[in-house]
Design the sequence.
C-alpha cells in the first residue's frame, strides 16, 4: 500500500509539474512571430520543444509575402497555438521626434452626454435615454442612411417632424438598432436630448516613417475621447506640420504640456488607423517629414531592448534634438501594450525645459545601440521625469494592414 501511495503521489506531482511547465511554454508563445530571413522551421525555445511551421504547407517561396498564418507545434508535431508570421526582412525607418498636428474624424457620431429637453409644457426626459442609448455609443446610421458628421444628423432630426427615427448604433464591437422619437422644444426645434462629437484634434509626436511603405507611425498609444475614454474609430483624418508655441512644465501631481499650433493647409499625411499602439497612415511626400541629415535606423526586436542608457528624440523648440534617458525596467510582453518599459529622463537640459515627460511628447522615439527600440507613451503623475514607453516592434507591426 505504501509503495502504491508513493507512486501515486509521485505521478500526481509529476503531472502537476508537467502541466505547469507546458502551460508556461504555451503562455510564452507570442501571437505574432517576426522573422527577418527565409522561413523554414523556426525554433522559439532553446531546447527546440516548440517549433513554428506554416499553416499552409503548399507555400514554397515567401519572398513576396508580408505575413502568413502558422502553427506553434509541440515537438514540431502537435499544433497548440495559431500564430501570425511577419516577414520584416528590412525594417529600416527614418526616426521622427517632431511635433505634428492630428485631426481625426470618427466612424460615426459619438455620444458623450445627455440632457432633458425644455418644452412649452416643461422638461421632458431625454429621448436618447429612453431609447437605451449610452455614453460611448456610436450612431452610425439613421433610417438606413450612413451618418458622417453632426450636421447630417442634425438635418435629419430637424426635418423629422417628430416622426420616430431608426438608429443603428455601435456599442463596443457590436451593432444594434433602436427607435427614438424626437421632441419639440420650446424653440420649436426637434431634439434627441443627446450631446455628440464627430472629431477630435491635438498635438503629438511622430515616431518614425517607413520610406518603402510610405507610411508613418506616431503617438505610441491610442487617441481616446476626452469625455468617455473610448478609443476612437477612424473614418478619416490627417496629420499636419506643427510648431511648438509654449511649454507648460510638468510638476508632481500636475502633468505638463507641449502647446503647439498647426494650419489645416499644411497636410503631410492621411490618418488611417487608431490602435492600441498609436496612430498610423500614409505620407504624401516622405521628404516633408524627414529630419535634415537624418539616416535610416533598424527597428529593434523587443528582446534586444535592455535596461540602461538610451536617447530620446523630441522637439521642444524649433528643431528635433537628442536627450539622454535611462531605461529603468523592461517588461516581458507577448502581445502589444503601451507600457513595455519604464523610462527616466536623465538629461538636465530637457528637465529644465519641460520638467520631464509632458503631454504632446507621446510618440517620441527612443534610440539604444543605434536602433529604434521604443516610443514614449505616458508620464508618471507624481514623477514627471519618469514614464512608460512602448516597444518599437509593436508599433512597426501596425504599419502593414495585413499584420
Sequence:
Amino acid at each position: 500500500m505504501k509503495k502504491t501511495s508513493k507512486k501515486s503521489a509521485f505521478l500526481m506531482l509529476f503531472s502537476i509539474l508537467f502541466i505547469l511547465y507546458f502551460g508556461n511554454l504555451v503562455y510564452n508563445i507570442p501571437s505574432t512571430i517576426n522573422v527577418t530571413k527565409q522561413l523554414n522551421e523556426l525554433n522559439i525555445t532553446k531546447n527546440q520543444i516548440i517549433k513554428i511551421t506554416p499553416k499552409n504547407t503548399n507555400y514554397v517561396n515567401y519572398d513576396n509575402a508580408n505575413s502568413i498564418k502558422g502553427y506553434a507545434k509541440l515537438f514540431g508535431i502537435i499544433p497548440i497555438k495559431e500564430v501570425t508570421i511577419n516577414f520584416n526582412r528590412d525594417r529600416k525607418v527614418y526616426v521622427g521626434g517632431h511635433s505634428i498636428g492630428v485631426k481625426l474624424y470618427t466612424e460615426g457620431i459619438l455620444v458623450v452626454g445627455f440632457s432633458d429637453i425644455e418644452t412649452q409644457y416643461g422638461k421632458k426626459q431625454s429621448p436618447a435615454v429612453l431609447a437605451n442609448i449610452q455614453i460611448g455609443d456610436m450612431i452610425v446610421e439613421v433610417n438606413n442612411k450612413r451618418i458622417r458628421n453632426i450636421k447630417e444628423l442634425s438635418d435629419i432630426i430637424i426635418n423629422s417632424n417628430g416622426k420616430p427615427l431608426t438608429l443603428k448604433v455601435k456599442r463596443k464591437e457590436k451593432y444594434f438598432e433602436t427607435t427614438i422619437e424626437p421632441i419639440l422644444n420650446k424653440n420649436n426645434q426637434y431634439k434627441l436630448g443627446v450631446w455628440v462629437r464627430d472629431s477630435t484634434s491635438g498635438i503629438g509626436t511622430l515616431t518614425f516613417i517607413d520610406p518603402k511603405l510610405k507610411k508613418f507611425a506616431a503617438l505610441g498609444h491610442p487617441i481616446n475621447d476626452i469625455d468617455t475614454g473610448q478609443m476612437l474609430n477612424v473614418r478619416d483624418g490627417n496629420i499636419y506640420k506643427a510648431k511648438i508655441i509654449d511649454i507648460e512644465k510638468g510638476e508632481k501631481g500636475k502633468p505638463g504640456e507641449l502647446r503647439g499650433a498647426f494650419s489645416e493647409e499644411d497636410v503631410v499625411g492621411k490618418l488611417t488607423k487608431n490602435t492600441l499602439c498609436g496612430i498610423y497612415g500614409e505620407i504624401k511626400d516622405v521628404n516633408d517629414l524627414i529630419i535634415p541629415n537624418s539616416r535610416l535606423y533598424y527597428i529593434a526586436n523587443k528582446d534586444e531592448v535592455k535596461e540602461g542608457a538610451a536617447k530620446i528624440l523630441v522637439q521642444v523648440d524649433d528643431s528635433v534634438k537628442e536627450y539622454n534617458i535611462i531605461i529603468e525596467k523592461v517588461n516581458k510582453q507577448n502581445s502589444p501594450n503601451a507600457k513595455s518599459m519604464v523610462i527616466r529622463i536623465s538629461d538636465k537640459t530637457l528637465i529644465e525645459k519641460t520638467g520631464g515627460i509632458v503631454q504632446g511628447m507621446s510618440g517620441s522615439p527612443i534610440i539604444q545601440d543605434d536602433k529604434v527600440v521604443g516610443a514614449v507613451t505616458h508620464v508618471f503623475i507624481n514623477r514627471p521625469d519618469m514614464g512608460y514607453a512602448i516597444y518599437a516592434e509593436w508599433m512597426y507591426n501596425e504599419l502593414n494592414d495585413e499584420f
